[in-house]
Specification:
binds flavin mononucleotide; 397 residues; alpha/beta; 42% helix; 9 strands; 8-stranded parallel barrel; TIM Barrel; 13% strand
Protein backbone atom coordinates (compact mmCIF):
# COMPACT_ATOMS: atom_id res chain seq x y z
CA UNK A 1 0.00 0.00 0.00
CA UNK A 2 1.40 3.39 -0.88
CA UNK A 3 1.92 5.65 2.11
CA UNK A 4 -0.46 8.47 2.96
CA UNK A 5 0.37 11.52 0.85
CA UNK A 6 2.32 14.26 2.56
CA UNK A 7 0.91 17.75 2.57
CA UNK A 8 2.91 20.86 3.37
CA UNK A 9 1.80 24.49 3.44
CA UNK A 10 4.25 27.06 2.11
CA UNK A 11 4.20 30.16 4.32
CA UNK A 12 4.69 33.54 2.66
CA UNK A 13 3.65 36.59 4.60
CA UNK A 14 0.97 38.08 2.31
CA UNK A 15 0.72 35.12 -0.04
CA UNK A 16 2.84 33.64 -2.78
CA UNK A 17 1.62 35.86 -5.60
CA UNK A 18 3.85 38.88 -6.23
CA UNK A 19 0.77 41.15 -6.25
CA UNK A 20 -0.76 39.84 -3.02
CA UNK A 21 0.86 42.31 -0.63
CA UNK A 22 -0.90 45.15 -2.47
CA UNK A 23 -4.42 43.76 -1.97
CA UNK A 24 -6.53 45.89 0.40
CA UNK A 25 -6.90 42.77 2.60
CA UNK A 26 -3.16 42.19 2.81
CA UNK A 27 -1.92 41.82 6.41
CA UNK A 28 1.03 44.15 5.97
CA UNK A 29 0.40 45.79 9.34
CA UNK A 30 1.18 42.38 10.89
CA UNK A 31 4.58 42.14 9.27
CA UNK A 32 6.31 42.00 12.66
CA UNK A 33 3.64 40.05 14.50
CA UNK A 34 4.68 36.47 15.35
CA UNK A 35 1.02 35.79 16.20
CA UNK A 36 0.22 36.05 12.51
CA UNK A 37 2.45 33.06 11.75
CA UNK A 38 1.09 31.14 14.71
CA UNK A 39 -2.44 31.66 13.39
CA UNK A 40 -1.29 30.49 9.95
CA UNK A 41 0.23 27.36 11.49
CA UNK A 42 -2.90 26.66 13.55
CA UNK A 43 -5.13 27.10 10.48
CA UNK A 44 -3.22 24.65 8.33
CA UNK A 45 -2.97 22.18 11.17
CA UNK A 46 -6.75 22.34 11.50
CA UNK A 47 -6.96 21.87 7.73
CA UNK A 48 -5.12 18.58 7.98
CA UNK A 49 -1.67 19.56 6.75
CA UNK A 50 1.27 17.50 7.92
CA UNK A 51 3.45 20.53 8.22
CA UNK A 52 4.51 23.97 7.12
CA UNK A 53 7.51 24.99 5.10
CA UNK A 54 9.59 28.13 5.52
CA UNK A 55 11.73 29.13 2.59
CA UNK A 56 14.71 31.37 3.30
CA UNK A 57 16.74 33.53 0.98
CA UNK A 58 19.25 35.31 3.14
CA UNK A 59 20.26 38.70 1.83
CA UNK A 60 16.99 39.39 0.04
CA UNK A 61 15.41 42.25 1.89
CA UNK A 62 12.00 40.97 3.00
CA UNK A 63 10.70 44.51 3.02
CA UNK A 64 11.71 45.45 -0.51
CA UNK A 65 9.20 47.67 -2.18
CA UNK A 66 8.32 44.96 -4.66
CA UNK A 67 7.12 42.07 -2.53
CA UNK A 68 6.91 40.97 1.11
CA UNK A 69 7.76 37.40 1.93
CA UNK A 70 9.57 36.28 5.06
CA UNK A 71 10.28 38.90 7.69
CA UNK A 72 11.55 36.52 10.38
CA UNK A 73 14.54 34.24 10.68
CA UNK A 74 13.01 30.76 10.25
CA UNK A 75 14.95 28.76 12.85
CA UNK A 76 13.83 30.85 15.78
CA UNK A 77 10.31 31.29 14.44
CA UNK A 78 10.05 27.52 13.94
CA UNK A 79 11.05 26.92 17.56
CA UNK A 80 8.20 29.14 18.76
CA UNK A 81 5.62 27.52 16.48
CA UNK A 82 6.75 23.97 17.30
CA UNK A 83 6.23 24.82 20.96
CA UNK A 84 2.82 26.43 20.49
CA UNK A 85 1.28 24.15 17.87
CA UNK A 86 1.40 20.46 18.76
CA UNK A 87 1.37 17.76 16.08
CA UNK A 88 2.46 20.18 13.39
CA UNK A 89 5.74 19.51 11.62
CA UNK A 90 7.97 22.24 10.24
CA UNK A 91 10.52 22.19 7.45
CA UNK A 92 12.94 25.10 7.46
CA UNK A 93 15.53 26.10 4.92
CA UNK A 94 19.20 26.31 5.85
CA UNK A 95 22.08 26.71 3.47
CA UNK A 96 25.18 24.52 3.56
CA UNK A 97 27.21 27.47 2.24
CA UNK A 98 26.54 30.31 4.68
CA UNK A 99 26.98 28.53 7.99
CA UNK A 100 29.18 25.85 9.47
CA UNK A 101 28.49 22.11 9.78
CA UNK A 102 28.78 22.48 13.56
CA UNK A 103 26.06 25.13 13.59
CA UNK A 104 23.80 22.96 11.44
CA UNK A 105 24.43 20.00 13.72
CA UNK A 106 23.51 21.95 16.86
CA UNK A 107 20.51 23.76 15.40
CA UNK A 108 18.74 20.70 14.05
CA UNK A 109 19.67 18.50 16.99
CA UNK A 110 18.11 21.08 19.28
CA UNK A 111 14.98 21.53 17.18
CA UNK A 112 14.62 17.77 16.86
CA UNK A 113 14.85 17.32 20.62
CA UNK A 114 12.50 20.11 21.57
CA UNK A 115 9.85 19.06 19.06
CA UNK A 116 10.07 15.27 19.45
CA UNK A 117 11.20 14.89 15.87
CA UNK A 118 8.82 17.30 14.14
CA UNK A 119 11.55 19.21 12.30
CA UNK A 120 12.79 18.94 8.73
CA UNK A 121 15.72 20.60 6.96
CA UNK A 122 15.38 21.92 3.41
CA UNK A 123 19.01 21.65 2.33
CA UNK A 124 19.99 24.44 -0.05
CA UNK A 125 23.36 25.17 -1.60
CA UNK A 126 22.93 28.92 -1.93
CA UNK A 127 25.00 30.79 -4.48
CA UNK A 128 23.13 34.08 -4.71
CA UNK A 129 25.43 37.13 -4.89
CA UNK A 130 23.10 39.01 -2.52
CA UNK A 131 23.60 36.36 0.14
CA UNK A 132 27.35 36.43 -0.41
CA UNK A 133 27.28 40.23 0.06
CA UNK A 134 25.24 39.87 3.25
CA UNK A 135 27.96 37.58 4.63
CA UNK A 136 30.82 40.00 3.97
CA UNK A 137 31.36 39.33 0.28
CA UNK A 138 32.63 35.81 0.71
CA UNK A 139 33.58 33.94 -2.44
CA UNK A 140 31.00 31.32 -3.29
CA UNK A 141 32.06 28.16 -5.13
CA UNK A 142 30.36 27.23 -8.40
CA UNK A 143 27.05 25.37 -8.65
CA UNK A 144 28.29 21.78 -8.86
CA UNK A 145 31.09 22.27 -6.38
CA UNK A 146 28.60 23.56 -3.82
CA UNK A 147 26.66 20.29 -4.11
CA UNK A 148 29.91 18.30 -3.71
CA UNK A 149 30.70 20.18 -0.51
CA UNK A 150 27.11 19.72 0.72
CA UNK A 151 27.36 16.00 0.05
CA UNK A 152 30.28 15.65 2.44
CA UNK A 153 28.64 17.85 5.06
CA UNK A 154 25.35 15.91 5.01
CA UNK A 155 27.16 12.55 5.15
CA UNK A 156 28.96 13.63 8.30
CA UNK A 157 25.89 15.20 9.90
CA UNK A 158 23.78 12.09 9.32
CA UNK A 159 26.41 10.06 11.06
CA UNK A 160 26.56 12.45 14.00
CA UNK A 161 22.79 12.80 14.37
CA UNK A 162 22.15 9.08 14.14
CA UNK A 163 18.50 8.44 14.87
CA UNK A 164 17.93 11.99 16.08
CA UNK A 165 18.03 13.51 12.69
CA UNK A 166 15.67 15.92 10.95
CA UNK A 167 13.63 14.93 7.95
CA UNK A 168 15.90 15.74 5.01
CA UNK A 169 14.28 17.76 2.26
CA UNK A 170 15.81 18.94 -1.00
CA UNK A 171 14.54 21.14 -3.81
CA UNK A 172 17.29 21.25 -6.43
CA UNK A 173 16.29 20.20 -9.91
CA UNK A 174 19.59 20.29 -11.80
CA UNK A 175 21.46 17.10 -12.60
CA UNK A 176 23.76 17.51 -9.60
CA UNK A 177 20.81 18.60 -7.44
CA UNK A 178 18.87 15.44 -8.26
CA UNK A 179 21.91 13.24 -7.70
CA UNK A 180 22.33 14.85 -4.28
CA UNK A 181 18.63 14.36 -3.49
CA UNK A 182 18.78 10.72 -4.58
CA UNK A 183 21.52 10.09 -2.00
CA UNK A 184 20.12 12.01 0.95
CA UNK A 185 16.57 13.30 0.67
CA UNK A 186 13.48 11.85 2.31
CA UNK A 187 11.35 14.43 0.53
CA UNK A 188 11.97 16.39 -2.66
CA UNK A 189 10.11 19.57 -3.55
CA UNK A 190 9.89 20.31 -7.28
CA UNK A 191 8.49 22.88 -9.68
CA UNK A 192 6.58 20.87 -12.28
CA UNK A 193 3.81 22.80 -14.05
CA UNK A 194 2.31 19.76 -15.78
CA UNK A 195 1.46 16.20 -14.90
CA UNK A 196 3.96 14.88 -17.46
CA UNK A 197 6.72 17.00 -15.95
CA UNK A 198 5.87 15.70 -12.47
CA UNK A 199 5.84 12.10 -13.66
CA UNK A 200 9.20 12.54 -15.37
CA UNK A 201 10.74 14.18 -12.27
CA UNK A 202 9.45 11.49 -9.92
CA UNK A 203 10.49 8.63 -12.21
CA UNK A 204 13.97 10.11 -12.58
CA UNK A 205 14.35 10.56 -8.82
CA UNK A 206 13.26 7.01 -8.11
CA UNK A 207 15.67 5.65 -10.72
CA UNK A 208 18.52 7.67 -9.23
CA UNK A 209 17.61 6.57 -5.69
CA UNK A 210 17.74 2.91 -6.78
CA UNK A 211 21.11 3.53 -8.45
CA UNK A 212 22.34 5.06 -5.20
CA UNK A 213 21.40 1.81 -3.44
CA UNK A 214 18.18 3.04 -1.84
CA UNK A 215 14.62 1.73 -1.95
CA UNK A 216 12.85 4.22 -4.30
CA UNK A 217 9.86 4.28 -1.92
CA UNK A 218 12.10 6.02 0.63
CA UNK A 219 12.12 9.19 -1.46
CA UNK A 220 8.93 11.18 -1.86
CA UNK A 221 8.29 13.77 -4.52
CA UNK A 222 6.13 16.78 -3.65
CA UNK A 223 5.43 19.30 -6.41
CA UNK A 224 4.29 22.80 -5.55
CA UNK A 225 0.71 23.82 -6.34
CA UNK A 226 -0.37 27.45 -6.33
CA UNK A 227 -4.03 27.73 -5.34
CA UNK A 228 -6.17 30.74 -6.29
CA UNK A 229 -9.64 30.10 -4.95
CA UNK A 230 -13.14 31.49 -5.36
CA UNK A 231 -16.69 30.40 -4.55
CA UNK A 232 -17.14 30.04 -8.33
CA UNK A 233 -14.69 29.64 -11.18
CA UNK A 234 -15.47 33.21 -12.31
CA UNK A 235 -14.74 34.60 -8.85
CA UNK A 236 -11.42 32.78 -8.73
CA UNK A 237 -10.42 34.05 -12.20
CA UNK A 238 -11.38 37.59 -11.23
CA UNK A 239 -9.17 37.34 -8.13
CA UNK A 240 -6.31 36.05 -10.26
CA UNK A 241 -6.72 38.97 -12.71
CA UNK A 242 -6.72 41.44 -9.82
CA UNK A 243 -3.55 39.93 -8.39
CA UNK A 244 -1.80 39.91 -11.78
CA UNK A 245 -2.68 43.58 -12.22
CA UNK A 246 -0.99 44.41 -8.92
CA UNK A 247 2.45 43.05 -9.89
CA UNK A 248 4.83 45.96 -10.33
CA UNK A 249 7.56 45.95 -12.95
CA UNK A 250 10.09 46.02 -10.12
CA UNK A 251 8.57 42.90 -8.54
CA UNK A 252 8.65 41.18 -11.92
CA UNK A 253 12.31 42.05 -12.43
CA UNK A 254 13.17 40.86 -8.93
CA UNK A 255 11.39 37.52 -9.48
CA UNK A 256 13.00 36.86 -12.87
CA UNK A 257 16.46 37.83 -11.60
CA UNK A 258 16.28 35.07 -8.99
CA UNK A 259 16.24 32.59 -11.84
CA UNK A 260 19.02 34.26 -13.83
CA UNK A 261 16.76 36.02 -16.33
CA UNK A 262 17.09 39.75 -16.83
CA UNK A 263 14.22 41.82 -18.11
CA UNK A 264 15.57 45.04 -19.68
CA UNK A 265 14.43 48.27 -17.98
CA UNK A 266 11.18 49.60 -19.40
CA UNK A 267 10.53 46.39 -21.35
CA UNK A 268 7.42 45.21 -19.48
CA UNK A 269 5.30 45.51 -22.63
CA UNK A 270 7.91 44.28 -25.11
CA UNK A 271 7.96 40.75 -26.52
CA UNK A 272 10.08 38.28 -24.54
CA UNK A 273 11.37 36.36 -27.56
CA UNK A 274 13.51 33.46 -26.37
CA UNK A 275 14.37 33.37 -22.66
CA UNK A 276 18.09 33.61 -22.01
CA UNK A 277 19.69 32.36 -18.80
CA UNK A 278 22.52 34.64 -17.71
CA UNK A 279 25.61 32.47 -18.36
CA UNK A 280 27.29 33.55 -15.11
CA UNK A 281 24.20 33.24 -12.89
CA UNK A 282 25.32 31.43 -9.74
CA UNK A 283 21.92 31.14 -8.06
CA UNK A 284 18.96 28.94 -9.03
CA UNK A 285 19.77 27.85 -12.59
CA UNK A 286 17.33 25.02 -13.25
CA UNK A 287 14.13 27.12 -13.23
CA UNK A 288 14.98 29.04 -16.41
CA UNK A 289 14.38 25.82 -18.36
CA UNK A 290 10.90 25.39 -16.84
CA UNK A 291 10.07 29.04 -17.60
CA UNK A 292 11.46 28.73 -21.15
CA UNK A 293 8.96 25.94 -21.85
CA UNK A 294 6.16 28.17 -20.57
CA UNK A 295 7.26 30.98 -22.91
CA UNK A 296 7.26 28.54 -25.83
CA UNK A 297 3.71 27.55 -24.94
CA UNK A 298 2.33 31.10 -24.74
CA UNK A 299 4.09 32.05 -27.98
CA UNK A 300 7.13 34.11 -29.01
CA UNK A 301 5.18 37.36 -29.25
CA UNK A 302 4.19 37.18 -25.57
CA UNK A 303 5.21 40.25 -23.61
CA UNK A 304 7.11 40.22 -20.33
CA UNK A 305 3.90 41.40 -18.66
CA UNK A 306 2.04 38.37 -20.07
CA UNK A 307 4.79 36.00 -19.02
CA UNK A 308 4.77 37.44 -15.52
CA UNK A 309 0.96 37.16 -15.36
CA UNK A 310 1.33 33.47 -16.24
CA UNK A 311 4.05 32.66 -13.73
CA UNK A 312 3.33 35.10 -10.87
CA UNK A 313 3.02 33.21 -7.61
CA UNK A 314 3.62 29.84 -9.20
CA UNK A 315 7.03 30.62 -10.77
CA UNK A 316 7.05 27.33 -12.67
CA UNK A 317 4.94 25.30 -10.22
CA UNK A 318 1.52 23.87 -11.02
CA UNK A 319 -1.13 26.59 -10.74
CA UNK A 320 -4.86 25.99 -10.34
CA UNK A 321 -7.41 28.80 -10.29
CA UNK A 322 -10.95 27.71 -9.44
CA UNK A 323 -13.24 26.42 -6.73
CA UNK A 324 -12.12 24.17 -3.89
CA UNK A 325 -13.58 21.22 -5.79
CA UNK A 326 -11.56 22.15 -8.90
CA UNK A 327 -8.32 22.31 -6.95
CA UNK A 328 -9.02 19.05 -5.10
CA UNK A 329 -9.87 17.32 -8.39
CA UNK A 330 -6.45 18.17 -9.83
CA UNK A 331 -4.67 17.10 -6.64
CA UNK A 332 -6.60 13.83 -6.49
CA UNK A 333 -5.93 13.17 -10.17
CA UNK A 334 -2.15 13.62 -9.74
CA UNK A 335 -2.18 11.40 -6.66
CA UNK A 336 -4.32 8.72 -8.33
CA UNK A 337 -1.91 8.57 -11.23
CA UNK A 338 1.06 8.40 -8.83
CA UNK A 339 2.93 11.26 -10.44
CA UNK A 340 3.64 12.61 -6.94
CA UNK A 341 3.59 11.60 -3.28
CA UNK A 342 1.85 14.67 -1.90
CA UNK A 343 2.04 18.41 -2.44
CA UNK A 344 3.53 21.57 -1.16
CA UNK A 345 0.58 23.93 -1.26
CA UNK A 346 1.04 27.60 -2.02
CA UNK A 347 -1.62 30.21 -1.39
CA UNK A 348 -1.98 33.08 -3.85
CA UNK A 349 -2.84 35.41 -0.98
CA UNK A 350 -2.86 35.13 2.80
CA UNK A 351 -4.54 34.84 5.17
CA UNK A 352 -7.77 34.64 3.06
CA UNK A 353 -6.34 32.07 0.67
CA UNK A 354 -5.45 29.80 3.59
CA UNK A 355 -8.88 29.91 5.23
CA UNK A 356 -10.54 29.43 1.82
CA UNK A 357 -8.36 26.38 1.20
CA UNK A 358 -9.13 24.83 4.57
CA UNK A 359 -12.85 25.42 4.07
CA UNK A 360 -13.15 24.39 0.44
CA UNK A 361 -10.29 22.04 -0.53
CA UNK A 362 -9.47 20.11 2.65
CA UNK A 363 -12.90 18.40 2.91
CA UNK A 364 -12.47 16.93 -0.59
CA UNK A 365 -9.09 15.49 0.32
CA UNK A 366 -10.16 14.06 3.66
CA UNK A 367 -11.90 11.28 1.79
CA UNK A 368 -8.57 9.79 0.75
CA UNK A 369 -6.99 9.96 4.17
CA UNK A 370 -5.30 13.31 3.72
CA UNK A 371 -6.62 15.78 6.19
CA UNK A 372 -6.19 13.94 9.42
CA UNK A 373 -2.51 14.73 9.82
CA UNK A 374 -1.90 11.16 8.79
CA UNK A 375 1.06 11.86 6.55
CA UNK A 376 3.62 12.51 9.23
CA UNK A 377 4.88 11.05 11.49
CA UNK A 378 2.97 7.95 10.36
CA UNK A 379 4.11 8.53 6.79
CA UNK A 380 7.58 9.39 7.92
CA UNK A 381 8.10 5.80 8.99
CA UNK A 382 7.97 4.35 5.46
CA UNK A 383 10.66 6.91 4.69
CA UNK A 384 12.72 4.88 7.15
CA UNK A 385 13.39 7.94 9.20
CA UNK A 386 14.67 6.59 12.45
CA UNK A 387 12.26 8.03 14.96
CA UNK A 388 13.42 9.03 18.37
CA UNK A 389 11.02 7.60 20.94
CA UNK A 390 10.80 9.86 23.98
CA UNK A 391 11.55 8.17 27.27
CA UNK A 392 8.58 7.53 29.54
CA UNK A 393 9.65 9.96 32.25
CA UNK A 394 9.59 12.78 29.70
CA UNK A 395 6.11 11.81 28.60
CA UNK A 396 4.79 11.72 32.17
CA UNK A 397 6.07 15.15 33.20
C1 LIG B 1 9.55 24.45 -3.45
C2 LIG B 1 10.93 25.01 -3.51
C3 LIG B 1 11.41 25.74 -2.43
C4 LIG B 1 12.68 26.28 -2.45
N1 LIG B 1 13.10 27.01 -1.37
C5 LIG B 1 14.34 27.55 -1.39
C6 LIG B 1 14.79 28.35 -0.30
O1 LIG B 1 14.07 28.55 0.67
N2 LIG B 1 16.01 28.89 -0.36
C7 LIG B 1 16.86 28.70 -1.44
O2 LIG B 1 17.96 29.22 -1.42
N3 LIG B 1 16.46 27.94 -2.50
C8 LIG B 1 15.22 27.38 -2.48
N4 LIG B 1 14.80 26.64 -3.55
C9 LIG B 1 15.75 26.41 -4.63
C10 LIG B 1 16.42 25.05 -4.55
O3 LIG B 1 16.48 24.52 -3.28
C11 LIG B 1 17.81 25.04 -5.12
O4 LIG B 1 18.66 25.81 -4.31
C12 LIG B 1 17.82 25.58 -6.49
O5 LIG B 1 16.82 24.97 -7.24
C13 LIG B 1 19.20 25.45 -7.15
O6 LIG B 1 19.52 24.15 -7.35
P1 LIG B 1 19.39 23.46 -8.74
O7 LIG B 1 20.21 24.25 -9.70
O8 LIG B 1 19.92 22.09 -8.48
O9 LIG B 1 17.94 23.45 -9.10
C14 LIG B 1 13.52 26.09 -3.57
C15 LIG B 1 13.05 25.35 -4.67
C16 LIG B 1 11.77 24.82 -4.64
C17 LIG B 1 11.30 24.02 -5.83
Amino acid sequence: MSPTPLLFADIHHSGDHEGAWRLPSSPIEQINDPGYYLDFARSVQAGGFDGVFFADFVGYDPLVSSVIRWPFEPTTLAAAILHEVPDLNIVITSSTVFTTPEQLYRTFRTLHALSDGRIGWNIVTTGAPKTARAFGNITVPGHDERYQVADGIVDRLRERWGSDRPLLVQAGASDTGRAFAARHADVVFGATPTKDAARAFRTDLRRRAAEAGRDPDEIRFLPGILTTLGATGEEASALRDTLDGLVTEEAARHMLAMYGISMPPGAFDDAVGALVLEPRHNGIRSRAGVLGEIVEKIGPSATWRQLVATIAGSRGHLSVTGTGADVAAVMNDWLDDEVCDGFIVKFAHSPGGVTDYVASVSPHLNARGIGHRAGWPAAARPLTIPRHEPTSHRRST
